[in-house]
Amino acid sequence: MAENLQRILDKPQSGILPSIEKGFDGLGMMQGSFAPVKRAVFGAAVGYIIGEALRPPWSHTSSGQKRPWIYLSGESSSATLIPWWAHPLAGAVICGILI
What we know:
The structure is a single chain. The chain is 58% helix and 0% strand. The protein has a domain at 40-71 and 78-99. It starts with a helix and ends with a helix. The protein has 99 residues and is an all-alpha fold. The mean pLDDT is 90.
């Protein structure tokens, strides 16, 4: 039993997650007590840049204005369930917590 577990632990990791972790490690974002915070800030920045570059129709109007969040806008006709700040928040959660 212990031999099987040791074989599994000694097996080299493959896939996309170890590659992402190695990339973050190369940038110094996997060491230290603030490593999750560093990754979250990086993820939020990347999410913001992607959201602003693509300006998806679910979070921006056709003229490029940011749509208000439906829960805070009241009766606005351009309100959305996925506001502009959901992109940085998703990047921060994925990079800071899930990796």
